[in-house]
Every structure is written in structure tokens, then in C-alpha cells.
Protein: NADP-dependent succinic semialdehyde dehydrogenase
Amino acid sequence: MAIATVNPTTGLTEQEFEAHTADEVEHRIGEADAAHAALRATDYPERADWMRAAAELIEGDLDELATLLTVEMGKPIAQSRAEVLKCAKNMRFYADHASDFLADEQLADPAAVNASSAWTRYDPLGVVLAVMPWNYPLWQVIRFAAPALMAGNTGLLKHASNVPQTAIYLDTLFERGGFPTGSFRTLLIGAREVAAVIQDPRVKAVTLTGSEPAGRSVAAVAGEQVKKAVLELGGSDPFIVMPSADLDAASSTAVKARVSNNGQSCIAGKRFIVHTDVYDEFARLFGEKMAALTVGDPMDEATDVGPLATETGRDEIAELVADAVAKGAEVVTGGRAPDRAGWFYEPTVLAGLTSDMRLVMEEAFGPVATLYRVADRDEAVAIANQTTFGLSSSVWTSDATEESFFVRAVDAGAVFINGMTVSYPELPFGGIKDSGYGRELAAAGIQEFCNLKTVWKA
Structure:
């Protein structure tokens, strides 16, 4: 795949970039390795000052960055601005809390281990490679980079090939904030070159956010090298609605969950599992609200849904819908690619799903929702858990017993009750099953790429 900005609103190539040569990659890995020696010698207050300065830089570049995100991957401009500001919040969060999250922990009773004292400490691992996707071009990188650098690690970024300008901006961001030269470096390389970077002895760990096949490939190489890996892969999150739910709020949130980021979010509700007692009303509200959305130019403030980021992505979502319709699915609303330039697809709701339809098990990475009618909570959980994914979930109920049941029974990295899944710096984020392993954000996110070292003293 060419390293290029191809505007998904027009389908036109705006700028192309040459891939880094083997010598350039070697130099950049060397820079990150040298920077680690300098960075780990600094203290948390110094790193925090640099991280806050970098946060101020991206806030100062808000309009420029938001426009860049929209041009490169097509999200509505208001959502692009929100992404930039969320990144700054995350950077300040780790600047404020890294020292607490990584503080030494004394054993309360050292005599139990025949010591005068014993404790644990966190040490950085070194250079960490991040393989990142295009759907949140800034946020996905910052949610890794902020905790990694605050812990004393340095970072290498292999970004998606269709967001190169965002990747280049990130190449110097932390250095501009004050971090040692080389603390974070972008590698303009293709997917085939990733394995060699993981295999480099100076690279100590890898994190990937992306597709399940990409995750399996990266994990296999990391495993061969006995290197730590954190994977955040696909998701087909259930959105369960029970009779006691506020249907107006649930249906409105369902729309936002399904079409945010033009439907291209791993943690978005995708499968809407509704109790039969309220199914008809929810389906009516959901379908009407999806149909009322404005599809158009993502630079227009009035636009709700812009184009999909790539032509391939648009074609794949169209194929999933066509497969379901050919096998008898009901189109509640949408179901077409508009006849216009760019890679648009209508907000779509399908009902009457059967097990032979690809949409039942595969992730719909676009503004397409599936509706399921269920008789009770047990059937709801059975459908929720039937896919190989387990990223997040949303449950709508005002019944405390049901709430407890779903929290225990749903196989996912998170359960959000009466709200849509959102990532917060304060909460651990990640999945189970084919959605990956490891956690980002909160204390868990900064501890992932550290050596938890035990110290025993006679």
C-alpha cells in the first residue's frame, strides 16, 4: 500500500511520501535506543513538565490538526477537534499520575520473607514499537505514547499508510515538548517491514491496535522473540436493551454509538440485542433516528456522517450488507452507497439476521447496525457472547438484578450500563478473546511496558 494521503471525501490523492530506507530505519531505531538511556535517567517531575508542554503544543495546533485528521480519514470536523483535545487531556493525566502509578510498594511484613525490607519497583523496558491504525490517527498513538514516555520508555511508530501526515507530525511532537532527541520516532514503512523491527534486539516490546489478522502476525513475531506484546484488535460489541430501559435515551445513544467516527470504531455498539417486549418500539425509534442523519462533507459542521476512510473499507461494508440482504435480512433503513464522489455509505439498520449471514460473526466497520429480537436475558447473553470478539459492551436496564447478571455474564473487557462505551484515561481499556490482550490507559496502561522488579534486603 502506498504511503499517501488520499482524501476519502473526494477519492483524490493529495500527497505521497517515500518510505524510509533500511538505513533510515536503522538510524531511527538507534536514536530511540540512545534516547532511552537519557530518558530513564530523568525523574517524573521533569518528564511531566515535558509532557504538559507537548500537550500545550497540540492544543495550540488544534485547528490545523483537526483539519488534517478529517482530510486524511474523513471523520466529521467536530469529532476531529474532540480527538485532539482528548489527547491533550490524556497527556496531562499521565503527567499528573505517573509517579503514583509507578511508585515503589513496600511489603508490609518483610519478616515473613526473612528480610529487613522488601519492595517492588517499576523500571522501563526500553524501546517500544507501536503499530497503529488510521481510525483515530492521533488518539490511538497518544494513548500509548503518553504513558510509555512518562514511564521512561521511548517509542517507535509504524502508523497506517493512509495517515502519513499525522504520523510525521507525531515524529517531533515530544521532542518539541522537551523530551530527549529520539524519544519518539515515526517509521514510514510498510507492513512487511514490521517483523524486522520487532526482531531488532534494541526493540523490547510491541503494541498494536488494528485488525485481528494484523494482531496475530505481530504476536507471532513477538512470541518468537520472547517480547512483550499488547494487542487491541477488532470488536463487535453487543448493545443490550431490556424492557425497563429508557427507550428514547437508549435509541439516541445507539445511533451515536453506531455512527461515531463514521462507524469505524472498534468499541462501538454494533449488534443491538433487544427484548421482544420493547423490540418494535426500539426498532422504530432507532431506524427513524438513523435515517434522519446528515451524510456529507465532513468539513461541514452540520454533517453527522462522513465517508469511510478507504475505498476498500467502503466496499467491504457494502459486501457484508449485500450478503445479508441476499440471504433474507430486512433493511430497516439505508443499505446503499450514495452515488457521489468519495467513499460514503448510508447509515444502515438490518433486522432478521440468520446464522448464515456474514454480519452475524464479522465486524461491521462502518455505519451499519444489526438488530436482534430476544425473549429473555439468557438469550440476550447467548447472542452477545456468540462472536469470537470480546472488547466492550453496553447494557440498558433499570433493574438492579439484571444489571448484576449482565456484568457477570457478558464476555467482554468492559460493560457500560445505560451508556455507550467510551475510553477514559482513568479507566483500563482492552479486550478478551479475539479482541486481544493487555490493557491501555489508567494505571494498567503505564505498567504494561515496565519491568515489575522485586527487591529483597537482608
Summary: The radius of gyration is 23 Å. The chain has two domains: 4-232+433-457, 237-417. The longest strand covers residues 117-124. The chain has 14 helices and 18 strands.
